Amino acid sequence: MKLGVLCSGGDSPGMNAAIRGAVLRAVDVHGFEMIGFMDGWRGFHEGDWIALDRPAVRGLSPLGGVILGTSRVPPFAGRPGEEIDLSDFRARYDAYGLDGFLLIGGNGTQTVASILSDHGVPTIGLPKTIDNDLSATDYTFGFDTAVSIAAEAIDRLRTTGDSHRRCMVLEVMGRDAGWIALHAGMAGGAQVSLLPEFPETLEQVCEWVTSVRDRGRSSLVVVAEGFRLDGAAVTREGLDGFGRPRLGGVAEVLAPLIEAETGIETRATVLGHVQRGGSPTAFDRVLATRTGIAAADAALAESWGTMAALQGDQITMVPLADAVGRLKTVPADRYAEARLNFG
């Protein structure tokens, strides 16, 4: 059996470990041949690939980024729901002599995996995203690393904030789902965590910040980039890779408003792509490796059209259709649980 491995969408810590896990199981144990396409679907379209074997993946587990590169180049023309012409795609697929794909990515990539599977292209998904917003899996690899980086930033901002009696506002990633803000805020003991799913008024935020000041403390506010201030998300110039308005800067808007309303000196920090970079945590290395192994085993069993999902402490192959079509957002009870301790 010959498998093609491809990464798409934003990078996520643990992608290299997932590739390593899949290759060691598929090549060394099952006797498969594997190739990796460079820079996502660009490599597939342009014939840019490398052979994947044990020497190619040596020492990959602790490395951040992804050796294959990734991009948001589309695999074929058309959008979900439209009639898709896969004739050119199939011709390339056949020319490579592939028997199946292992696709590493988030919601967009797994949606493509589902489309390909529905059209008869053998595909298995490996879920990665720092946002943890992919359905049918408890956690995606990359999330734990992003939360750990954000929690460390909170620890560092708290000491400087306390020194100057300032309110510190930290912006983390999270366009439509606030999992990073929720977990990092809880881990770092932030007094306020603002999520895209749950709007709060400026008055309420300032009330929490003031109550912290009145107790003799300095506030730490965590805000997801997709939090809607006065009903609208804060955007930067240009569009992202999906043609959506580029988010970012809500902390820089929120901080002066807090200062004006409360009289408390307030500073903003935008963590940005730091959350994606560097070595993955041990948790993400293990999860990614187990995911790669499970995907290779699923290919051996010809369990196409599935995704390797973490459910409890087990990696379970679930239908791709269960993983796509809706984002996994923070449920109301989880936010309510955290909100009781704000201020």
Automatic annotation (TrEMBL):
User: What PROSITE patterns does the annotation carry?
Assistant: PHOSPHOFRUCTOKINASE
Q: Where in the cell is it found?
A: Cytoplasm
Summarize where Mg(2+) binds, as residue positions.
N107
Molecular function GO labels: 6-phosphofructokinase activity; AMP binding; ATP binding; diphosphate-fructose-6-phosphate 1-phosphotransferase activity; fructose-6-phosphate binding; identical protein binding; metal ion binding; monosaccharide binding
This protein's UniProt keywords = ATP-binding, Cytoplasm, Glycolysis, Kinase, Magnesium, Metal-binding, Nucleotide-binding, Transferase
Q: Which residues bind substrate?
A: T129, I130, D131, R166, M173, G174, R175, E225, R267, H273, V274, Q275, R276
Q: What is its main location?
A: cytoplasm
The cofactors required by this protein are: Mg(2+)
Protein name (Swiss-Prot/TrEMBL): ATP-dependent 6-phosphofructokinase
Give the organism's phylogenetic lineage. Answer: Bacteria, Bacillati, Actinomycetota, Actinomycetes, Micrococcales
- The gene name reads pfkA
